[in-house]
Amino acid sequence: MAALNPAPLVEFRQVHFGYGARAILDGVSFSVPRGKVTALMGASGGGKTTVLRLIGGQVRAQSGGVLLHDAEQGGASQDIGPMQGDALYRARRRMGMLFQFGALFTDLSVFDNVAFPLREHTNLAPDLVRDVVLMKLNAVGLRGARDLFPSEISGGMARRVALARAIALDPELVMYDEPFAGLDPISLGTAARLIRELNDAMGLTSVVVSHDLNETFHIADHVIILANGKVAAQGTPDAVRESPDALVHQFVNALPEGPVRFHYPAATVEQDFSAGAHP
Q: Residue 247 in 3-state DSSP?
């Protein structure tokens, strides 16, 4: 893959975020390079989806900055956290989101699901909406399924429809929350290939949250591993695989034992089995 472009589209600077007394992100800093596929990985509950919500402005950092850079304005940046109203709306127009399991509208056809953002956020004439929808569906191989409903298509096809909807407004940034979850190997490979090909063909910047290490490492330019509220490792897939960090080593090699233990803390086996009846 090509060398990383150092210019970021999104940048986290010393971001702190938590729910009540539970810290999720503890001074996290990283950049999402423009035009590349960035994989955001780590153990469950490590804050990956929270990162997506911070970028989209659904939640706000308690301290630190989540910056969205604008190449058309000389690289000027805005902090997403304080944005409200029209400013937040304009920032979100630059983003597309593929939700876990697609989140299609079940009472709308495939065509109308993809047309929804165009009808809601633009004043395009119906003929132009039709042309854009068919182009997006063609890009994901489902132009022929436009009249079907979500209940009439497979899970893998539904994920591709959701991807067509996510790119309907030609966003700069597309975020994927577990795009491979629940897919068979063929559908998973197809989804991964589409993410990579659409990113390159449309000049997108992509952030992929996933637990599928092999497929995600195959399509990613840049990998960020979150653990214990921090960035445990970041860099190219090869660099992350070679990280000396014990937790990263356990994660990328799928080892049952390491910093993340298989056994929940307990008394020794000898103590438990010699203690007789439970108190």
A: helix
Counting every residue, how long is the chain? 279
Gap between the Cα atoms of 111 and 90, Å rounded: 25
DSSP characters over 84-96: -HHHHHHHHHTEE
Gap between the Cα atoms of 11 and 82, Å rounded: 15
Domain that holds residue 127: 31-56+83-223+234-273
- Asked if 74 and 62 touch (Cβ cutoff 8 Å), the reply is no
Q: If DSSP codes are grouped into helix, strand and coil, which group holds residue 177?
A: strand
CATH code of residue 123: 3.40.50.300
Residue 257 is classified by DSSP as: S
Give mean pLDDT in consecutive 10-residue pieces for the chain, a chain of 279 residues: 63 90 88 93 83 91 89 72 87 84 85 91 90 91 91 87 89 89 83 89 90 87 89 89 83 73 68 65
* pTM for the structure as a whole: 0.84
CA atoms of 96 and 92, how far apart (whole Å): 8
